[in-house]
Amino acid sequence: FSLENLEYINLTLWHFLASFKFVKHFRLLRKIQFNDPVENSIKYMKNNLKLNLTLEMMCEQIGLSPSHFSTLFKKTTGRSPVDYFISLKIQYACHLLDTTKMRIKEISNYLAYEDPYYFSRLFSKIMMVSPTAYRKLEKG
């Protein structure tokens, strides 16, 4: 063996041993960043508030069956994926009511609710106040 080969083997050995020490840490990071279907689905929902997403569409994006995904999502968040998505839409509707002059019908259409009356009933059910009354509330 040459000195150069021994130095290379020594460095490689230390790199190899260090990889064992940090493998658990790297797996955890990878799981958080890439393999968390609930977090990925929430990001997908937030990026698609203007669509009428179904459970099947979410599952197709995440790559899980509807039953497995629903169980996992509810276990993590305490809510079904569809209920969670609706609440995100209503939160965004509140933001639009607070920051724009858009009419209720425009907000409804913007968030993929074809029927503004259905949207208003849904908003009222979740927020305990109608969209019009919400807009009039003094905030902050």
Describe the structure.
The chain is mainly alpha-helical and 140 residues long. It has two domains: 1-35; 37-136, Arc Repressor Mutant, subunit A, CATH 1.10.10. Helix content is 76%, strand content 0%. It contains eight helices and no strands. The protein has helices spanning 3-34, 37-47, 55-62, 66-77, 81-99, 104-110, 116-127, 131-136. α2 (37-47) crosses α3. It starts with a helix and ends with a helix.
List the SSEs and their pairings.
Elements: H1 3-34, H2 37-47, H3 55-62, H4 66-77, H5 81-99, H6 104-110, H7 116-127, H8 131-136
Helix pairs in contact: 2-3, 6-7
List keywords for this structure.
Arc Repressor Mutant, subunit A; 0% strand; 140 residues; mainly alpha; 76% helix; 2 domains; elongated; 8 helices
Q: What can be said about this structure in brief?
A:
The chain is mostly helical and 140 residues long.
